[in-house]
């Protein structure tokens, strides 16, 4: 497999523990990689180094074999980039801004802008300063995708979009994925990551904590079992037998992994009124990486 994006031991130290430290991961040709982490973890700092806006203190980043900082001009012109916060020229109308970006990228026309505006129901004729956050985000999406780039770097692409438009975006990503695009996307929305990404890289406090296949991550999710027992005393007594369980009145809930059999056998000693079993959501699962809580 060819790597389209290579991040090799980069450190950008802003002092007081802020920044990113010794980050290494790759995005393969045709792969969609989700870049996840809590606020301030270092996602944007990593992405800005990929775009050649800032130079790593040590280590290197390259895209299509080109050093991102040394060849920043090539990177900016050829990649599809959607920044977390777009630096708009407020006095322009939406369409003027789209034309401005197309010119900057040395495009001949506006490429796929028209069909993207249709897909996202965007009327770009008004002044940007009067637009809502969602409309501005749609302009950013048009600018990132209109050139039909081979590589897309997207920093929280659906921020500000309503659920209908978030779905349109997922649909667009899935289409682009099918067309063989290489995509790196930071996101806080687990559902979009789950639906679109092949792998996820998780960063916390500037350090990479995991890079995993989505399928493997999904299969690592546990079952959450909720038992309703006959009375509160029973619930309290049962909860004492199950490590990490929570009691609310007559209910006891617990994350159950491979020890389901043991759990059921212990429950057999009590009067069970009701039983619910569900799979942990990806969000609940990721809390483990995010907050470092013990959800074993
Ligand atoms: N230019 C800078 N100077 C000093 N500190 C900075 C600078 N840029 C970022 N930081 C700090 O580095 C850390 C990582 O910030 P970054 O914006 O990369 O996080 P993030 O993962 O993108 O967060 P979010 O999800 O909130 O967008 C934060 O503590 C931030 O305050």
Helix and strand layout, with pairings?
Layout: E1 3-15, E2 18-28, E3 32-36, H1 43-50, E4 58-63, E5 66-67, H2 72-78, E6 80-82, H3 94-104, H4 113-119, H5 133-145, E7 151-155, H6 163-178, E8 182-186, H7 190-196, E9 199-204, E10 207-213, H8 214-219, E11 223-229, H9 232-241, E12 246-248, E13 251-256, H10 260-267, E14 272-279, H11 282-291
Parallel strand pairs: 3-8, 3-9, 6-7, 7-8
Antiparallel strand pairs: 1-2, 1-4, 4-5, 9-10, 11-13, 11-14, 12-13
Helix pairs in contact: 3-5
Bound molecules: adenosine-5'-triphosphate.
Adenosine-5'-triphosphate binds at residues 14, 18-19, 37, 39-45, 84.
Pfam family, one: ABC_tran
Protein name: ABC transporter ATP-binding protein
Keywords: ATP-binding, Nucleotide-binding, Transport
The overall strand count is: 14
Query: Hey, roughly how much beta strand do the residues contain?
Result: 25-35%
Q: Strand-and-helix sequence, N→C? A: EEEHEEHEHHHEHEHEEHEHEEHEH
- Give the radius of gyration: 23 Å
Termini Cα gap: 34 Å
Give a quick account of the main beta sheet: strands, pairing sense, barrel closure.
6 strands, mixed
**Oligomer class:** single chain
Give a summary of the structure in a few sentences.
The chain has 296 residues and is α/β, with parallel strands linked by helices.
Protein described:
By secondary structure, this protein is an alpha/beta fold. It contains 11 helices and 14 strands. It is 35% helix and 29% strand. The chain has a 6-stranded mixed β-sheet with strand order 6-7-8-3-9-10, sandwiched between helices. It has a 4-stranded antiparallel β-sheet with strand order 2-1-4-5, with helices on one face. A 4-stranded antiparallel β-sheet has the order 12-13-11-14, with helices on one face. The mean pLDDT is 92. Residues 14, 18-19, 37, 39-45, 84 line the site of adenosine-5'-triphosphate.
């Amino acid at each position: 497999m060819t790597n389209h994006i290579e991040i090799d031991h980069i450190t950008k130290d802003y002092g007081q523990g802020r920044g990113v430290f010794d980050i290494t991961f790759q995005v393969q040709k045709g792969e969609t990689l989700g870049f996840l982490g809590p606020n301030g973890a270092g996602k944007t700092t990593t992405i800005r180094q990929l775009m050649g806006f800032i130079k790593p203190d040590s280590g290197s980043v390259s895209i299509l074999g080109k050093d991102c900082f040394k060849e920043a001009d090539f990177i900016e012109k050829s990649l599809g980039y959607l920044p977390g916060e777009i630096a708009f020229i407020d006095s322009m109308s939406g369409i003027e801004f789209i034309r401005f970006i197309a010119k900057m990228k040395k495009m001949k026309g506006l490429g796929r802008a028209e069909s993207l505006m249709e897909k996202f129901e965007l009327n770009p004729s008004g002044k940007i300063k009067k637009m809502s956050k969602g409309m501005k985000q749609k302009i950013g999406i048009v600018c990132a995708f209109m050139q039909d780039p081979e590589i897309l770097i997207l920093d929280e692409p659906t921020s500000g979009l309503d659920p209908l438009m978030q779905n349109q975006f997922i649909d667009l990503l899935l289409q682009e994925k099918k067309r063989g695009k290489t995509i790196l996307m930071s996101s806080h929305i687990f559902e979009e990551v789950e639906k679109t990404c092949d792998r996820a890289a998780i960063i916390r406090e500037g350090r990479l904590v995991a890079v995993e296949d989505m399928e493997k991550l999904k299969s690592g999710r546990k079952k959450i079992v909720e038992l309703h027992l006959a009375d509160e005393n029973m619930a309290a007594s049962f909860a004492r037998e199950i490590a990490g369980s929570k009691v609310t009145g007559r209910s006891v809930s617990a994350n159950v992994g491979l020890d389901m059999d043991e759990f059921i056998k212990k429950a057999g000693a009590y009067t069970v009124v009701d039983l619910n079993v569900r799979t942990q959501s990806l969000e609940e699962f990721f809390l483990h990486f995010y907050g470092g809580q013990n959800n074993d």
